[in-house]
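Q: Sequence in, structure out?
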Amino acid sequence: MKKKLLAVLLTLCLVLGLFPIGALAAPKDVNDTEFHINGIEEMKALVAEKYDLSESQITIHGVEVNGTRNNEPATATGGVVDHGYLNDGDTGAPGTNGELTGWPNFWTVLNTADIIDAETVSSITIYARKGYKDLFHKGDRLAGVTVYLNPEEVHIHVEQLDGKLITEIALKKASLKPQYTITYTDGVEDEEIFADQVTTVAEGTETPAFDGVPTRTGYVFSGWSPEVAEKVTGDATYTAQWESTTKDVSINYWDVENNVQAGEGKITVEKDVTSINTSSL
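A: Exactly. Output:
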């Protein structure tokens, strides 16, 4: 019986030995991550837009991911030299700062917890060349192009096989202009009149309007504070302003016979009421 038990234990150990250690261990830090940027063609389009060039003239050589570390500006570079300008076009340095092997439209930038906090990623800077053919015909280097990200398109998740953390960055809503958050809130404490409406848009665009008509029982919506700006110039929060449709009226009860006050009270009436029939009180 002991021999059978020992054989089972040895078999189990051998099976466990086939799995990578990372599969059994939780990630140490959410910021020990790889940035996977989707995609290379979108980056070319943004660079072309910046320099008024054709996308076919553009090759990507390096990408840096910008955010903060301990509330200070920080950048993940993947450890490349000269922003990656020396690397092969549209390939970069695979594994550190370059095309993701097997995923031709993804670019990878390595990061560790002591470089940048993954949750703070706000933009990427793209380093590209114009007219690049090969390492001997490099064309012209273009100054780095900073692209501002929509926070809705930055996602951190854990890869199942080895516990690796991946931060996916999509570029569908990215912009050459800074992105700002516009919030509409009801301004009422201890009660939700409507859920906050939050939208992220590029600088200089028209301020998105509130979706719907603000309503509140017993009140009339009178506008937003501050007044909604025509164009977006930064983060902004607009708070609903309300005017009550009722008012409180104080009532004194008088003992006519004894000529003394018998009591007092208060009633709520519509705001435009000018007289009250006290016989029903």
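The radius of gyration is 31 Å.
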